[in-house]
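INTERNAL AUDIT FORM
Audit reference: QA-55
Scope: verify that the stored structure record matches its stored sequence.
Auditor: D.O.
Record contents follow.
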Amino acid sequence: MGLWKLKKNLYKLALRIHDGVLQKLYRMFLSLLKVDKNIILFECMLGRSYGCNPRAIYEKMLEKGLDKKYRIYWIRARDKHFKVPGGAKIITRNTLAHHYYMAKAGIWVFNTRQNAYFVKRKEQHYIQTWHGTPLKLLGMDMNDVFMAGNQGIEVYKANFWKQSRRWDYLVSPSEYTDDIFRHCFDFKKEYIKTGYPRNDSLVNNNNKEYIDALKDKYKIPKDKKIILYAPTWRDNESIAKGKYIFNPHLNFDRFYNSIKDEYMMIVKYHYLIADRLDFSRFEGGIKAIDADITDLFLISDIHMTDYSSTMFDYAVLDRPMVFYCYDLDNYFVGRGVYFDFEEYAPGPILKDTDELMEFFRNPDFEPYKEKYRIFREKFSHREDGKGAERVVDLIESF
């Protein structure tokens, strides 16, 4: 056996031993603590941000003054610096305090999976809100794992299955997602059949006064139409495990010069994107904004995306969408999808800068109205602005 292979095998062995020790120590730690039903943990995207469904649920609790009834903690990644309103306290991920409250809290409200060594106790309630409507195959439905640093499809599926055993409740925004979640997560417990809480704002705050206030907050002009560009990440363009580059094959200079008289573009990076482009030369005509995407949905007039699940959320607003899919011919190869993207896309599918420029010279969304209606009915029919309220009602019932 060569030296490199020996080192690799020793490293894998060390990881197994390390994980085994962590789990044993954690279980011992659990046995010393009593679960407190009045402690609630919130986390978004493994502590990377204050947003998505957990944020909407938490802010509904603030409206009702429940941050005074419960002891609420938000988990934040070590390298992130977001603040949280109200009475919640912040704890840093992967610290002793994090482990302590994971064992102590009576309620977990998360929107993605957790570290394998965390043990969910029978006295705890785990509300999994998830973070999107699936287009690509997910979880146990996947044929292969494309994310950087994966350990193979069987290990991935086994880990995913173990994770979903912990969930007591799962938010599902449509009958479509009910069906998908049953097999991709093998989830057989209780579904919270309501719109995604993060989309409540799209229903309740879709008015000029609220939108103008958001434009003031983010310094967005009111005399131009706003294009929100929010593409997904590409698994074949990684720079490290869980970190990906932004390479949209779009000539921003040409595109900007063709739209600048009428439009401004906001770029919203996917949370897995690790690099950033410099848009300063466009003097505010194109700029990236790191804000809750729900706010950006509201201030935009057109959503430009690709295969991102943002399309399902944006449909709640009934505003036009453009699909910039420069890699349409090969993006889905090997991945598998739950429906025919080209058949259902409720807007034009464009493949290069020239096609984008040509469309925006004289945009026409009239031919897509019927497809849009079908799209909304299939994927967004539970979005009524009361999703967070229903989850909070559940929390109060425990």
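Auditor finding: record pair retrieved intact. The chain has 15 helices and 15 strands.
Action required: none
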